[in-house]
Design brief:
By secondary structure, this protein is α/β, with parallel strands linked by helices. The protein has two domains: about 240 residues, 3-Layer(aba) Sandwich (QueA-like); about 80 residues, Beta Barrel (Thrombin, subunit H). The protein is about 20% helix and about 30% strand.
């Protein structure tokens, strides 16, 4: 299967640069994966499409304010650092711009010395291992000095940092938001619970590998970066009960989907587990854990549109995306949503 099979024309003006004032006022396209039919709604109408006994699965990862701006200790040259993942103690895998200025031993200063870092290693992909030093609690220092790591296609400054965070974000560790969850409000979640819809949480810390372009022609040759996931005993038990009782399991976002499919593929059921997944889902994959998906509109030729195509069919998805372009839907992180039922 060729990467070009997942291309579509996307006018740049449809890439949402800022979030809507009210989260649940975004638009919702409902795609029937069996019939291929499309309907247009507001996101707050998602309540109408979920039934008593269904289970909505949300990713409660919390985005770190992982973008830091600092200077080289010796020359004062400006550097930008993006935290990717914690390696060991105060050592982090990072991306540094410009990377060529940072060699092993380079010292970097942030926020007038409130935070310092020393480069202790180089990574194959050009990343750097930095060891941080500070007084107090690292995450509190990061909250003070860091900025949200918005994707490169968002060029507007984000005035309210919390708008790139779900209302249920809890477990620190992501380099990017699980953006399908951004549409939910506390009120909407309460409305779903009142209808008898179960709410379950998993954790998958989103790495930048999720958004890495597919650089091979044959998609089967693409390697996914591994991401850390965690599913509790309570969530696993609830999901098994929902399935046994005939309810649907609806994941919110590709991250929740990849987590549940990783576990269901290994065990044939849901179990308490944590680990690393590099599962790559594309057409031909047989889903073992989920029945439906709420997701945003993704980049052409991305692994994310391939996952969506595996669930709903490539032709259905490309037709839906072309319709979204025609109907002026907003795309990507701050954009509108699709419910595949």
């Amino acid at each position: 299967m060729n990467v070009e099979d997942f291309d579509f024309h996307l006018p740049e003006e449809l890439i949402a640069q800022t979030p809507l004032e009210h989260r649940s006022e975004s638009r919702l396209m409902v795609l029937d994966k069996e019939e291929g039919s499309i309907a247009h709604h507001k996101f707050k109408n998602i309540v109408d499409f979920l039934d008593e006994g269904d289970c909505l699965v949300l990713n409660d990862t919390r985005v770190l304010p992982a973008r830091l701006f600092g200077q080289k200790q010796d020359t004062g040259a400006n550097l930008e650092v993006l935290l990717l993942k914690q390696e060991d103690g105060d050592q982090w895998e990072t991306l540094v711009k410009p990377a060529k200025r940072v060699r092993v031993g380079t010292e970097i200063v942030f926020g007038d010395g409130k935070l310092k870092a020393t480069c202790t290693g180089l990574k194959e992909h050009g990343g750097r291992i930095l060891e941080f030093s500070y007084e107090g609690i690292f995450y509190e220092v990061l909250d003070e000095l860091g900025e949200m790591p918005l994707p490169p296609y968002i060029r507007e400054r984000l005035d309210e940092q919390d708008r790139y965070q779900t209302v249920f974000a809890k477990e620190r560790g992501s380099a990017a938001a699980p953006t399908a969850g951004l549409h939910f409000t506390e009120e909407l979640l309460e409305e779903l619970k009142a209808k008898g819809v179960h709410i379950a949480f998993i954790t998958l810390h989103v790495g930048l590998g999720t958004f890495r372009p597919v650089s091979v022609d044959n998609i089967e040759d693409h390697d996914m970066h591994a991401e850390f996931y965690q599913v509790s005993e309570g969530t696993a038990r609830l999901l098994n009960e929902v399935r046994a009782n005939g309810g649907r399991i609806i994941t919110v976002g590709t991250t929740s989907t990849r987590t549940l499919e990783t576990i269901a593929s290994k065990h044939g059921e849901f179990v308490e587990e944590n680990g690393w997944t590099n599962i790559f889902i594309y057409p031909g994959y047989e889903f073992k854990g989920i029945d439906g998906l709420i997701t945003n509109f993704h980049l052409p030729k991305s692994t994310l549109i391939m996952l969506v195509s595996a669930l709903a069919g490539r032709e259905n998805v490309l037709h839906a995306y072309n319709t979204a372009v025609k109907e002026q839907y907003r795309f990507f992180s701050f954009g509108d949503a699709m419910f595949i039922k």
